Amino acid sequence: MSSRIEQIIEEIEEYVDSCKFQPLSSTKIVVNKEELEELLRELRMKTPDEIKRYQKIISNKDAILADAQTKADAIMAEAQEKQAQMVQDNEVMQEAMKQANTLLEQTRQQAQEILDNATQDANNIRMSAISYTDDMLANLEQIMSHATETVGAKYNTFMSSLQSCYDIVTKNRQELSPQAGAASNYAAAALDEEDEEYEEEQ
């Protein structure tokens, strides 16, 4: 079953795919800012909980190993009790010792196998959790990068359109009055300077 954060990422991808392209463009799209921000806001809220969840899974490694050690110790204790009982009850002491030693060795191998399997399972859980968390953060990084590029492109398009309109107005005023045209040139220079400062900040 997928987590809520995976569902949100899928919803964002589906939303981006459903957006219409801007006129005369095959790469830029038109998005609903409020809808996209809502999805990103929920993603930011869910991310810490998701990371804590997988940190908890990783921390369970010690509990798995401790449980395996307890089971191994119990098996060893039972084997030692059987060994002592066999030595006491069996009239042929040497045969009893041989059987007890064989049982004890088998028990040691079984206990070691339990510990090895538990260690491998714990490490697999830890690596899976780390890998999943990294994939999740990589998807989040890609979404944020795409959003930043989209906002920058929209701003540049807006400024270009605004400058074009401003040039037309200035030209018309210059044709009507040379003094009004001089004032417009000063204002245009100020607008260009502000645009350059924004691009430098980006």
Q: How many β-strand runs?
A: 2
Beta-strand content bin: under 5%
Number of helices: 4
Low-confidence stretches: none
Q: What number of domains?
A: 1
The largest sheet has its strands arranged as: 1-2
Whole-Å distance between the termini? 40 Å
Helix proportion: over 70%
Give the integer mean of the pLDDT values: 76
Which structural class matches the secondary elements?
Answer: mainly alpha
Question: Given the C-alpha coordinates, what overall shape results?
Answer: rod-shaped
Alpha carbon gyration radius:
36 Å
Task: Note down, in words, how this protein is organized.
With 202 residues, this protein is mainly α. It has one domain (4-201). It is 89% helix and 2% strand. The protein has helices at 4-18, 33-89, 93-176, 178-201; strands spanning 20-21, 29-30. It has a two-stranded antiparallel ribbon with strand order 1-2. Helix 1 runs antiparallel to helix 2, helix 2 (33-89) packs antiparallel against helix 3 and helix 3 packs antiparallel against helix 4. The two termini are 40 Å apart.
